[in-house]
Each structure stands twice: as C-alpha cells, then as structure tokens.
Task: structure prediction
Amino acid sequence: MKFTKTDHMQLLPHMEDVGSDIMDEILKERASYKPEIYTEADVKAALNAKHCSLENLKALLSPAAAPFLEQIAQLAQAKTRANFGSNITLFTPLYIANYCDNLCVYCGFNANNKIKRAKLSDEEITRELREISKSGLEEILILTGESETNSSVAYIANACALAKKFFKVVGVEIYPLNSDGYALLHKSGADYVTVFQETYNPTKYEKIHLGGNKRIFPYRLNAQERALLGGMRGVGFAALLGIDDFRLDAFATVSYTHLTLP
Result:
C-alpha cells in the first residue's frame, strides 16, 4: 500500500477542527523545558512542595533527580494512597480487529505488513465478553487497528453496546474520531477514550508516520478534546517513551492533562 505524503501538520478535509489552542500551548511548554538546567536544590524544593506544579515536575524529571528516585517513589506512593487508598483497578483489553490503514514504521499492524488480519463477528465478540466477565472483572477496553474502512465507527459502537451488557465500565482505544463519532460511541456505552500520541515532537512524529490518517499530528493530539465534546466522561493520555527524549515527552503528556482537564 502506498500513500501520497501529506503535510503532517495540516488537517485533512474530513477531520474536525475544534478551534483549540491546546496543541500550541503543549508544544510551547515542551520547547521551553530544558532538563539540564535543574539542580539538586530544585529537586528538593519539588519534593517539599505541597502541590506539584509543572515547574516542580520539570525538576523531578531532570537528570538532577536521579539520586532522589527512592524519595520520589515513596512520595508518589504516599500521594497515591492518600487519594485512592490501596485500591487496584484491573481491566482486560479486547482486540476486535487488527486491520490498519497507517504506515507507522515501528508497528506490527502497519498496513504493508503481511500478517493475518481478523475482525470479530458479533457472535465472536459476545463470546469473548462473556468469558472475560466470568473472571469477575468489571471493566473492559475495546481496541482495534486504525482502519475505519474495516472497523467502522458503527461496528465499534455495536461492540460497545455488547460490552455494556457484561461490564460496568467500557473504554475504547481506537483511531481518532470527530466529536460526533465519539458521541455515538458514548451513546452506545463507551465511558472513556485513550489515545497514545506516541511522541509530542512533530519532526520525529513525521519521520515515523509515513502515511494514513495517523500521519496528521494535530488531529491525533486533539482527539481527547473531541472525545470530551462528544460526551465521554473520561480520557486517557499517553506517549511511547523512547521514540524521542523521554523526559520531554513525559512532561508534554502531563502538561496536556494539566491544560485540558479541570
């Protein structure tokens, strides 16, 4: 499969523009972060801060924080227990299809890879959901490869409706949609959406996403905003640490949640 290389920073005609400046803010925050300038004193100040600001986070992610990893871990554990107690949340991911229309150099689902492709029928999805529900788990994550051609929004919505019969919480991790697509999934039973940005470095992003809708950087980055506009009660943010500087991408991921969520 071949694709004409498009401008990775320009939305395609079918892609919704929500008029947000979040991407510009995140990229500005990321560009301003210089991990090497932070000192031991900055790390100690961050550890003693009542609330962890973005500036504190920069210090905790910096090379200067390496000798303090045990203290950071203990503080993180204390804050987690203060907010969530000793609760552990478990869920099961269920791939219902592995077709993909993208050319991502690092991914086994790449459209040009000669692998066995599959798409579950309603009966197969129901059978898997029923068996998983017997474990006592109450949350399921529905996943597909990124192919609207083979895994339409209607197909995924139907899978969400089937999942809601067995599980209290249904999440989706699929290709980005416009807000009306997310609204349909939410109406069908989906509670939250997770989207991996992979990397928040636009230059590196272009080099590893050679074709398909996923090549368009801003459409993927703004997916969570469109999901919230579509009524989803939760959104997840993530990067694949290691594609670019892990400190910068980890910081960008957290700054996105800081800018987007109340």
